Amino acid sequence: QRRQRPPRRRGKKGGAGGGSRDMSAVHASSFSPSSSSAPSSTPLSSSSSSTAVAGETYRPHKVPLITLTEETPTWFECGRHTPGRDDTLLSVASGSGGSSAGSSSGAGSGSGSAGSAGNSGGRMRRNTPDVVRKYRTLGEKIYQHEVALSKQQSQSGGGSGGSGRRDEAWVESTMRRGTLKDRIAAMSVVISSHPVHKLYALDMLLNMVGIHVDKFGNATAAAGRPNDRVSQLASEALQDLWVNTLLPPRRKLVGLDGRPLLEQYEHSSSSSSAAAAADNNTTNTSNSKKRTLSPRVLLLWRYEEHLKARYSAYVDLYLSRSLTETTLELTKITTLKTASNLLRQVPEGEASLLSMVVNKIGDPSRKVASAAGHQLRLVLEDHPAMMHVVAREVQQLAHRPNLSSRALYNCIIFLNQLKLTSSTEDDDYEEDDANGEGGAGDESDSDEDGGTKYRKKSKPKHKRRQQSLPASLINTYFRLFEVAIKKSEVAREASAKGGRGKGKGKGGKGRGSGPTGSNTQSDDGTMRGRL
Fold first, then answer.
1. For 199-214, what is each residue's pLDDT tens digit?
2. Among 199, 249, 368, 369, which residue has the fewest nearby CB atoms (within 10 Å)?
3. Which 3 state secondary structure label does DSSP give 87?
4. Contact between 133 and 53 (Cβ < 8 Å)
């Protein structure tokens, strides 16, 4: 009797649950996570409304929400026509919303109401930690349910037949029991075919380069140092996946804290919201009518946040560690090529990658320093608009205290080899001071921006000293010349004092005239060599 009960229950539940609901009804369903209660496991009925009301919670979907097709071959193109798909705090505040709908990168999906939802005066309320935590928890539930549905569908056949199941089983077995190259190739195939539903294959590749990802998606450095050959092969596969499969080519990844959650999807009736609006001196008209958020959109936002955390760990924990902790020149040069390729092809993490490559110009090894300069010139060939920010980073490196003569020489040689044009002279350029204030991220778009990688520096509202890039380079040369002159004068004075003391000890003959002249010549030679 106990064995017969489950089939009767499943048949009864399937008959009353409307298991034949089509895909369009699932995509049209929306929800409101305003209630803190646990999501209901009751399936949506065919007569349920697609509009969210106050107090309604998300109800698990019955079919996968993300399906890659010929029209949407990548995850960042899925749902591009859904309202609010690519809304960010910056786009909604500027009133642009999702005006870039239909772009190849999926940087913005048509959301005409998003522009009108922006608050007056272009200012928005930032998301509170509680709001971000609530949507992150709900998004994780939707994502885990999506992965479970995809796994269940693949095990039951899913229209692929028995041969498809056998192929997937063979690939899964190769990922764990094959040779090193076969395992890496199998992981790459799995991620390319199922980037959303089989994220564990990406975690296995990251584990090969010394990055451990726990079940909550937090990435940390592994306890032991990975094998150089294993990490190099896995890094090559990861580089190809970042560029061709996982990262959008024309915009940066955005986390949930950069989405307009509090502004568009939360109630404004609470006194705390009114107080927050009063503190920001903004009206709460955009929040008077709460918008609905599609489960598919929240699922994509949560998955994008997972990718952002993993890519950041790859850059900070593997590439940076390979350049700083490794003494092998070949490993450093290979890592520089990887960082340069990522910097040229994807905008995500460009500030960290640029600073990483520029710092290697001052490497004690001549081969590594030469490779860093060569990779930077390749970046400028593909992206001439980055010349300003690259020159500024190199200038800041040259102004660092206690910099070796070889590193300063490499910086001046690189700046001297920049190809300047008339358009470069006309563009505005922020001059950096001798202390090296500012950074690479000042010229790049914000993480919330969906635009191109680098844009010309817009004139700020407050007055700041601006000049062309050639003029800034000339000022840098003169500053370095002044520093060398001051050091030469200090050395000359020190040698003169030493000569006087020596002369007094020998009866006052030649009070420092001979040593002073010889030291002056040697100091001049050192100054010329340093410049």
1. 999 999 999 999 999 8
2. 249
3. coil
4. no
End-to-end CA distance of the chain: 92
Burial pattern 470-493, b for ≥16 Cβ within 10 A else e, equals eebbeebeeebeebbeeebeebee
Query: Contact at 8 Å (CB) between 209 and 231?
Result: yes
**Is 506 in a helix, a strand, or coil?**
coil
The percent helix, strand, coil of the chain (3-state, each to 5) is 60, 5, 40
Residues contacting 439, CB < 8 A, separation 6+: 351, 355, 393
Task: Kindly indicate the confidence band of residue 401, based on its pLDDT and cuts at 50, 70 and 90.
Answer: confident
Task: Using alpha carbons, select from 455, 462, 479 the residue that is nearest to residue 388.
Answer: 455
Q: Are 122 and 93 in contact (CB under 8 A)?
A: yes
- pLDDT tier at 264 (50, 70, 90 boundaries)? confident
pLDDT, position 425 = 57
Helix (H, G, I), strand (E, B) or coil at 61: coil
Are 123 and 280 in contact by the 8 Å Cβ rule? The answer is yes
- Partners of residue 422 on adjacent β-strands: none
Look at the chain and count its residues: 531
CA distances from 125 to 122, 173, 181, 269 (A): 10, 49, 50, 15
Mean pLDDT of the chain: 74
**CB contact set of 528 (below 8 Å; sequence gap of 6+):** none
CB atoms within 10 A of CB 512: 18
The per-residue b/e assignment along 116-144, b for 16 or more CB within 10 angstroms, e otherwise, is ebbbeeeebbbbbeebbebbbebbbbbbe
User: Which pLDDT score is estimated for 434?
Assistant: 39
d(C-alpha 451, C-alpha 45), whole Å: 41
Instruction: Give Cα 522 distance to the centre of its chain.
Output: 49
Report d(CA 200, CA 195) in Å as an integer.
Answer: 10
* Contact assessment for residue 429 and residue 388, using Cβ atoms and an 8 Å cutoff: yes
Roughly what angle, to the nearest 10 degrees, separates helices 469-505 and 387-398? 10
Largest CA distance in the chain: 119
Instruction: State the average pLDDT over residues 164-192.
Output: 90
In order of 82, 189, 338, the CA distances from 123 in angstroms are 24, 44, 39
- 221, 226, 228, 233: CA torsion to nearest 10: -80
pLDDT of residue 90: 87
Q: Which residues pair with 467 in a beta bridge?
A: 429
Q: Measure the CA–CA gap between 336 and 361, rounded to whole angstroms.
A: 11
Rounded-to-integer distance, Cα 257 and Cα 309, Å: 13
Distance (Å, whole) CA 348 – CA 315: 10
Question: Which stretches of 225-349 are DSSP H helices?
Answer: 228-241, 261-264, 271-279, 295-313, 320-324, 329-345
Q: How far is it, in rounded angstroms, from Cα 105 to Cα 31?
A: 27
